[in-house]
Amino acid sequence: MITTTLNSGWRLSHLAGAVPEEIRIPETVPATVPGCVHTDLLDSGLIPDPLNGDNEERLAWMWRCDWRYELCFNTPPAATGEHVELVFEGLDTIATITLNDTELGRTDNQFRRYRFDVGHLLLSGENRLVVDFTSALSVAEERERIYGEYPFVNAHPFPMVRKSACSFGWDWGPVTITAGIWRPVRLERWRGTRVRDVRLGVDLEGNTGVARLVAEVERDPEAPPASLAYNVAGATVAAMADTPGISEVVLQARVIDPDVWWPRGYGDQPLYDSVLSLDEAPVWSRRIGFRRMEVDLTPDEIGTPLRLKVNGELVLVKGVNWIPDDVFPTRITRDRYRRALVDAVEANCNTVRVWGGGIYESEDFYDAADEFGLLVWQDFMFACAAYSEDAWLKDSIIPEARQAVARLSGRACLALWCGSNENETAFQDWGWRERLQGRAWGRGYYREILPAIVAELDPTTPYIPSSPFSPDPEAEANNRTDGDTHVWDVWNELDYLHYADQAPRFASEFGYGGPMAYSTLTAAVHDEPLRVGGAQLAVHQKAEEGFAKLRRGLDAHFSEPADFRHWHWATQLNQARAFDFGVRHFRSLQPHCAGSLIWQLNDCWPVISWAVVDSAGVRKPAWYALRHAQQDRMLCLEPTGGGRVRLAAVNDLPQPWTARVRIGRGTRHGLEVAWEERRIEVGPRAAAAVELILPEDPDGFLIAEADDARRAVWFVSTDREAGLPGFDADVNVARVAGGYRVDVTARVLLRDVAVIADAELPGAVVDDMLTTLLPGEKASFTVLTDGEATDPQILTTWPVLRSANHLAS
Ligand code: BMA
């Protein structure tokens, strides 16, 4: 088979829809494929940056426009007996495709690959390929008029079109409603026999690694039989393709005693080359890892826990939810995917959930996850909506799901498929049952169609119907005894200390909002002066009642911030403390609670959100808190009421842990700390707890530390109630390789010391932060930066050097 890419030379033109007077679009502009209209107009300097200021609203006209992508290309016409196919890996979304004035077809699913037979249409001279896109929003609204309303969250009826839901706007993302050729285009020429598609099942049976490849083969009736060979780790299995037409050929390789793939923290990630050849020419390859994935839903005396098992071992899941890393996903390079997943790895995650309102991610994402040992929980693309089960939608969803499952099948990292994000709980709890009046709403996909597709095409990967879910479809999907749970009453209604009230079996979403880094904020928000009520800041805050919820959190823990910069620090710090508290709490319940996935790792634009890393890649304080809370050995202090505190020791390592915990008691405004030692015996990959008496003094605090676990602190009162001493420390800054080292020696109790330099030294990264220092203790912070501070002393004072003490009056 000969493949010719058709990604360059495209032109874009505007077809229909009102364009504001000040924007003059020439007859055609260069188009980047893969790409979208927004990025093309941006590259041509025709529109302002959609992510800047209040440009979102200014570009709303784009949602309603129709566009044309056009490519003239030369290619030899089809020779006798030659097949030529035009393949679109992804079209976003409502498209009509024409080649040399003949319509090839119409598409309406962003997530599907489309193939067109074009051999009979190719000309010997120039060929003209046209892809016309119609406004997905107009089509969604039109379908709503025809088929009736299906409930959804946010502003636009996204469930009517198979397109990334969040492109219609989300509670952390702007409305863009992109259009364009978002994945590569190519011509495939073949004669005789070809491999049309491949899927893979990889498993571990005892000490034997099994790689079962299913090749979808297409063969001309008169072609001679062809030979297929699948080589795995040096061993080859072969078969003949001798059936005319389309058939499936199974090649099963067995590797005795392979090195086994494990999620990080449980072992290594050996990957073996595997190559499929047709008549000795390689046609497909993949690095594979031998592992067995299981979802264990064995009921216990409390309910039905959700437990992930890899190679027979329970994996205590700690990780993050993932959203598309850019509102224009074609800007996410392979490197950028890797950097974003390094953020997960370095925060001690072992799992990433690809959330159902985004996209099935690119191979680059899963390649990195395979290598890094990050388990992937993969949602199908259904989120926070009811979806019609009638033919007009179902007939598009089935091939979409089949393609997605086949493409990702056999990935070492793929831990489970999940039918939807929140659609079952939405039907039960968000008043949708009444609104739907008996119409089917998607359960047929989640409970029947999708599991059957996974069982058929990717039988070595488990499936769950929704997140959250309960195995019994009649039970409350978001209950706390079965399956997984999304914990959102904290943040939406309650302070983060209420995480301690909950004991789910698997917390697959919980989060707390906070602003993007100051440098990211000031690059996108230009209110003069910057203030919480600012018009542009409001554009970059999409959460329902977001500012009020931030306010509630501040009121519970901090004094009134002195100015915007203090507000920014206080809300970031509060977010960090919320994650620290929540993650430690859920992990301290292991294995009763077998997983914790915070909402969310990343952002798609500069925004106040639950993300721990912002859209510029800056790690927020919450990222450091997550890293601390996800250490393999970790201490957790939380109040249990009645003047008591629970001290839990959490051990994710396979060896038992005798935790010699030094427990200190002091007061915020005092200088002395009284120490005692307690031994806590913790089993392998387990947690154990003891109870401590809380100091009676409202100014008091408890501290717990062990040789192999970072310090945990619990303060009897909030910073608002009890205050903190004014910041007082000896501070030195020194030039070191790659940046600066800031040494801080506390003269008083310093809480949550941080060096945050992104605004003063763009791109600066600090190795650690949020350190609590007792009087006399010293901490060093290393700031890595390519830049040079005109005056390094800026690193020794507010706003770069800061602490909770800077917020307490
Ligand atoms: C859950 C997620 C997202 C949302 C988040 C924060 O509902 O599944 O839909 O962004 O909470 O509200």
From TrEMBL:
SUPFAM superfamilies: (Trans)glycosidases, beta-Galactosidase/glucuronidase domain, Galactose-binding domain-like. Its EC number is 3.2.1.25. Keywords: Glycosidase, Hydrolase. This is beta-mannosidase. It catalyses: Hydrolysis of terminal, non-reducing beta-D-mannose residues in beta-D-mannosides. Residues 27-183 form the Beta-mannosidase-like galactose-binding domain. Signal peptide: none annotated. It comes from Actinomyces ruminis. It is an enzyme of class 3 (hydrolase). InterPro entries: Beta-gal/glucu_dom_sf, Beta-mannosidase-like_N2, Beta-mannosidase_GH2, Galactose-bd-like_sf, GH, Ig-like_fold. It holds the Pfam family Glyco_hydro_2_N2.
